[in-house]
Amino acid sequence: MPQVTIDGRVLEFEGQPRLLQFCLDHGIELPHFCYHPAMSVPANCRQCLVDIGAPMRDRATGEVRTDGEGNPVIRYFPKLQTSCSHVIADGQVIHTARTSEKVERAQQDTMEFLLINHPLDCPICDQAGHCPLQIQAYKYGPEGSRFEFRKVHKPKRVRLGPRVVLDAERCINCTRCVRFTDEISRSHQLTIIERGVKNYPITPPGVEFDEPYSMNVIDVCPVGALTSVDFRFQARIWEMTRTPSIATTHAKGSNCFLWVRDNLVLRITPRPNPEVNEYWLADEDRLCYRQFNEDRPAGPQVRNAAGTLEAVSWEQAISTAASVLEKAGAGAAFVGSARATVEDNWLLIQLAEQTGGQVVGFMEHIEAGHGDGWLRTDERAPNSEGCRRLGMTPVDGTMLRARLEDGTITALYVLEDDVIGLLSAADLQEVSVIVHHYHTTNRTLEVAAAALPAAMSAETIGTYVNLDGYAQRVRPAKVIQGASRTLMMQMGLSRADRHGTPFDRWYNETHYINCKPSWELLPAVAEALGAKVPAGGPRRIMEQISQRCDAFRGVSYKAMGLEGMPLPASIQLEAA
């Protein structure tokens, strides 16, 4: 197998890998700005320069020449080479800044040129603390600047579109943003104008940067030149915590990070997953962060004799829900949810079996024409495929309305969805009660006799299956009131306390929502009925699903890990 020597370390390789990516894959750090693994290689920042040599060979015999000690004689390229564009060859010897003073000096000089006109506004820049330019200036740049003249000024606070702001003075002309719009999204809405030290990216005349993937240029920008309209000047990176999760605005299930400060989700950024979304995230998946913070319930409620909802304890609300189901008996109909996790829908099926009721299906949320064949889908709920694999089918509104009219159904139990829309309030006049799990204010609350606030995907643990049959987990990024030990154990440790403490200057108690995960509520309702539904936390629930449902055979939290796992393409649409 061919070999290459990097800083004295001999490594084997296959094919024709490019040097920079090969080094990164093997834990060898090389500074760079313009290179991105998903885009073309312009080699224009010159920060990844290395010294490359190859063994000399005898022209007549082709044999490698050796010195007096039997070591191969290495002939180095006359100039330093860009590692991002260089294709490795067998026997090459490569020196980075760790073993070559020439490379070290070249990287310092390149960094000095980049910083000549760069503004010294790190204290107010959104990129501070996670800025590649800032980090590499400390690691590979000179200790000071010799430039004592007025810097070149460029446009600032330019609204390229509804979601992205440009500060052109910070741009180092890596062209990542332009290449993204040319090669990845193919909107061609950005270009470079002017020349030399005066150039910067901008939209062509009469064009607005409003494509559905525009905010990806913020992620690929290695400086703070491109920032988010929503997140600009909102928080510092060291004040927030980052939790791996998935987007739940539609059925693609793109991987993402939820960034939280004081128990509020402040932004959402992409998390690389080559099997699902590669390095990218649709703008709608980012801008949904408000739903985790706004219009949230204030606790459980039941409808009183006056016909209005009033706040009660969890015990009272669960007891009311149980009494309604007990009275309805076989007349109870359970509506699953493509917005809820696989575990929650499974428990709903078990509760229906225990009460003698029936799961009538789950609600689809199809928006024809919304999908684009990439990271957006027509199905606007994240787990319709998971519901189907549990044996559930989309609710037939006509059938459900007919059963309500003839009195076959006397109570509805709605899981994390809004049944008004599929039905009207008039259709529900003859139904004695609606027991309802919900995330935010919706129309079903108007007819609910017991309203049980459910934790959202940013506050719970569970599994979603995207439209391609890929099972992925969500983890709690926010803390809810009375959080269980199971939830707290799943919280990460990127801060001593990742959701804010009374000692943080931004701490606010009102940001802690009084809700519970449906995998806690459903067993509690069953227990109040004297029935038994599998409990013990979502991990154990998934183990039971895996054992009893062929469509989830072999699925476990360990197997899914951080990046999920594919489920069998051929499934049995009947729950065991």
Assembly level: single chain
The CATH topology of the domain at 301-456 and 515-534 corresponds to: Rossmann fold
Q: Could you say what the CATH architecture of the domain at 301-456 and 515-534 is?
A: 3-Layer(aba) Sandwich
Radius of gyration: 29 Å
Give a quick account of the main beta sheet: strands, pairing sense, barrel closure: 7 strands, mixed
Q: Order of strands across the widest beta sheet?
A: 16-15-21-20-19-17-18
> What structural class is derived from the secondary structure elements?
alpha+beta
Number of strands: 24
Number of helices: 14
CATH class of the domain at 301-456 and 515-534 reads Alpha Beta
Query: Distance between termini?
Result: 50 Å
Summed over residues and divided by their number, the pLDDT gives a mean of: 91
Helix content: 10-25%
Uncertain segments of ≥5 residues (pLDDT<50)?
495-500, 572-576
- Categorize the overall geometry: elongated
Binned strand content: 15-25%
Would you give an account of this structure?
The structure is a single chain. This protein has 576 residues and is an alpha+beta fold. Among the domains are: 3-112, Roll (Ubiquitin-like (UB roll)), CATH 3.10.20.740; 117-228, Alpha-Beta Plaits (2-Layer Sandwich), CATH 3.30.70.20; 301-456 and 515-534, 3-Layer(aba) Sandwich (Rossmann fold), CATH 3.40.50. The protein has 14 helices and 24 strands. Helix 7 crosses helix 12 and helix 8 packs across helix 13 (538-548). It is elongated. Residues 495-500 and 572-576 have low confidence and may be disordered.
